[in-house]
Amino acid sequence: MFSKILIANRGEIAMRIIRTCKEMGIKTVAVYSKADVDSLHVRFADEAVCIGPAPSSESYLKISNIIAAAEITNADAIHPGYGFLSENAKFSKICNEHEIKFIGASAEMIEKMGDKATAKATMKKAGVPTIPGSEGLLDSLESAHEIAAEMGYPVMLKATAGGGGKGMRAVWQAEDLEKAWESARQEAGAAFGNDGMYLEKLIEEPRHIEIQIIGDSFGKACHLSERDCSVQRRHQKLTEETPSPFMTSTLRKKMGEAAVQAAEFIKYEGAGTVEFLVDKYKNFYFMEMNTRIQVEHPITEQVIDFDLIREQVKVAAGIPISGKHYIPKMHSIECRINAEDPHNDFRPSPGKITTLHFPGGHGVRLDTHVYSGYVIPPHYDSMIAKLITTAQTRQEAINKMKRALDEFYIEGIKTTIPFHRKLMDHPDYIAGNYTTKFMEDFDIEE
Hints:
- By secondary structure, the chain is of the alpha+beta class.
- It has 3 domains: 4-103, Rossmann fold, CATH 3.40.50.20; 132-201, 2-Layer Sandwich (Dna Ligase, domain 1); 207-441, 2-Layer Sandwich (D-amino Acid Aminotransferase, Chain A, domain 1), CATH 3.30.470.20.
- The protein is 32% helix and 28% strand.
- The chain has helices at residues 11-23, 40-44, 63-72, 89-97, 107-114, 116-126, 141-151, 177-192, 249-265, 297-304, 308-316, 394-407, 417-423, 427-430; strands spanning 4-7, 27-33, 47-52, 77-79, 101-102, 155-163, 166-171, 197-201, 207-215, 221-233, 236-242, 270-278, 284-290, 331-338, 340-341, 347-348, 351-352, 355-357, 364-368, 375-376, 383-391, 409-411.
- The strands form 6 sheets. Strands 13-12-9-10-11-14-21-19 form an 8-stranded antiparallel beta sheet, with helices on both faces. Strands 3-2-1-4-5 form a 5-stranded parallel beta sheet.
- α4 packs antiparallel against α5 and α12 runs antiparallel to α13.
- It starts with a strand and ends in a 16-residue tail after the last helix.
């Protein structure tokens, strides 16, 4: 087992990893930018190293500074959390070259699954259902027209290096394809330095359902059931739940087997998520694989009583998985609390938290790094907390979430708490009747 782990991240996920490491008797090293000097992960780690100024490009994304911090503190492993360098093949490779264990996927695995066109081709070979579309990248607008006409509209243009909805365009008719092609390529090139595009059939009334998997270094994988992430705004998840209200035991078995098949086909090591689009007829299609821990991992932990970070660390240390597939025993919901103003088009709201009261009670979990007096910097993601409620039934989990949101009191900044409170009263959400298009008709002012 590792003696010291450096956490190459910040905020609530850094705190989350520190807690598990402490429980395992492993020393921790926090890295931080100058903007994060007062962050809790700096305070609670055994050691802390400043790695640069506020901009992430000069700190949390600066590989040389992070490796230097690991070497001067004698860390024998690095946990990247999510975001930042968690799916960076170069970082994984450099860690390996410096004989520091990267607690995540290998460089080869990240390259294979990080490029969406390559990932789709790999999944086809593995026998996992994929969305009908182009074979690899499109070489021209003319090719896009030909394939779209053959499949039939609507279609979806996607950037191969995309993420967070960038480089994606839904196209409903042929005359709109050229404009979508130009704007998507421009956006993808600016965001990722790669304007490669591919085309897929647009799945109507889709749900975004992902399967959590763990793979070990012996070629075995297991799944830990599903999470429904369909409530999204601009392809960014707002809330997640498990089990999915759309799921049946037959569909879970099929999707779980497909996810494990995918992981074992590529000999995946570590925690990962196989993400699917599921249509209204319960047909499911591979969308992408995230080769890291997910933001929404706590709801899985709650319903199966399982520490995913601990399992990540154990697998990275060469310990085999149990091989067991897990089924949810309870129901859990997560609301992402962001420093954003939901009444003003979710505009970011950095600043000082002047008053703060956390919710509590049975079945309430809060993963956060903020405190009263904490100044939320404008340089990073706006998520400041994840509120998770767990109960015997879905309705009980919703009721518990309403109560917890009512107790969650923050002054000094705007947050998405009012949005989530309204969502919990929405009749379609209560009925479990929602798709990825849910937010298009949601109006917080009504």
